[in-house]
Write a structure and sequence with these properties.
Largest sheet: 3 strands, antiparallel
Helix content: 10-25%
Radius of gyration: 17 Å
Order of helices and strands: EHEEEEEHEEHEEEE
Oligomer: single chain
Strand content: 25-35%
Number of helices: 3
């Protein structure tokens, strides 16, 4: 980033681990590593294919990433607030996954658990994904590290997703809100 004096370069597609990618491509202007592991600090941005990503956290030896900008504007789904059955999940697991895998290699996209407990706790379930929306609870956890922009979807339904169409979202000012799942202009990150 310009303010930190750090340079983050893109790298060629290939079969390399995230640790190796950061080791090869992340350094200070004077050539020294950013930290002991040579990994960029939390809050740093770097490009993965077409997507500018923000590092929200490190869990063990993996980075938790969120697109800094929207990858698409679309409805969550046309019928209900179930992330498992949603149009947005289908999009993330095809177009977005394919772009990230093309750039870093599919073996470098780590599975993670997405807690799909509804906002009113009437539904408690989850799914293991490689690419997903963040949940309302994850947004609360990482809020200070996420750049503000237009409104965008979370994976969290407001209530039982089989009985309603309301999904929790984040407004442009950073506040948590909710919209009907069939609203067509929701940001996807």
């Amino acid at each position: 980033g310009e303010d930190s004096g750090c340079i983050y370069q893109n790298f060629s597609p290939g079969q390399v681990s995230l640790q190796r990618v950061f080791d090869m491509n992340t350094y200070n202007i004077d050539g020294t590593p950013l930290c002991n592991k040579g990994l960029p600090p939390i809050g740093s941005e770097f490009r993965v294919g077409d997507y500018l990503c923000n590092i929200l956290d490190y869990i063990e030896d993996t980075a938790v990433l969120l697109c800094s900008d929207f990858v698409e504007y679309m409805r969550f789904d046309d019928q209900k607030a179930s992330y498992l059955e949603s149009d947005v999940r289908q999009y993330l697991n095809t177009a977005v996954y394919d772009e990230v895998a093309r750039f870093v290699g599919a073996e470098n996209i780590v599975e993670h658990y997405v807690d799909l407990t509804s906002d009113d706790c009437s539904t408690v379930d989850g799914v293991t994904e490689r690419v997903s929306l963040i949940t309302k609870d994850q947004y609360r956890r990482y809020r200070t590290k996420i750049p503000l922009s237009g409104w965008w979807w979370t994976a969290t339904s407001r209530g039982d997703p089989d009985d309603n169409c309301t999904v929790c979202c984040v407004r442009a000012d950073g506040e948590i809100s909710e919209f009907d799942c069939d609203r067509s202009n929701g940001g996807v990150r």
